Amino acid sequence: MSKKLALITGASSGIGAETAKQLAKKGYRCLLLARNRARLETVAGDIREAGGKADVYPVDLADDRAVQRTADTIIEEAGPPDLIVNNAGVGRWIPFLETSTEEAVKMMAVPYLASVYLTRALLPAMVQRGSGRLAFVASPGAYLTWPNASTYLAARHAVKGFAEALRSELKPDGIGVTLIVLGTVESPYWEHNPGSRENVPATNKQLLPDLSLSEAAKAIVDGVEAGKDRVVKPALYRAIFFMSAIAPGLVASQLRKASKKARKKA
């Protein structure tokens, strides 16, 4: 595993940073992508101090030309990745009428278009080699819908559709695709997206507990190493997704009630 190369987006903090650290402990050389160089250097420093290998590539993932330039540099300096973890994401959970069109565009640009730009830039080299894995980090919003998070949910549905379509398309080329669906994670996301927490549907925390950063990253790392098509954490969401498929009206009704309950508590 010491020669494996992993690229992680949104690696300057939160899930991305923790995933990079856990991959480095597994022997991967990690390529860290995000906009903030200083934060990336901090994460890379932590990885190196622990005996791992990491390189930083500051880039605005919403800029397709910048992504292409960065990808070209990565191919030249490190070669094609064995693993790409599309983790970067932005966007507040707020009502649609409180969402500006500019904010809606940004939410679609990252994570969805960012994953399109990066995958398109690096995939040819992976296909030519005949191996590799793409991972896409999403939320239950990739399968479900609830009030007051419309543009956020639309972007996650797009990520799911992209991942599932790529899995079918790339299987003959030896490229695997893992979709990771994580429930509520205690991360800096909530600080960076004010107004979002109160729009998270209320759930039974014993059945659907919040995930720590370590638990979320472990789910990602274990899933990609096992070559899984899908990873769902907490696992109970699988049953909820199944119920939504066979009784969408019932599940949607319950989510609306849970959302209303959450806002009353906020």
Automatic annotation (TrEMBL):
It is an enzyme of class 1 (oxidoreductase). The keyword Oxidoreductase applies. Its EC number is 1.-.-.-. Pfam families: adh_short. Keywords: Oxidoreductase. InterPro entries: KR_dom, NAD(P)-bd_dom_sf, SDR_fam. Residues 4-183 form the Ketoreductase domain. The keyword Oxidoreductase applies. GO terms for molecular function: oxidoreductase activity. Gene3D superfamilies: NAD(P)-binding Rossmann-like Domain. Belongs to the short-chain dehydrogenases/reductases (SDR) family. This is SDR family NAD(P)-dependent oxidoreductase. It comes from Methyloligella solikamskensis.
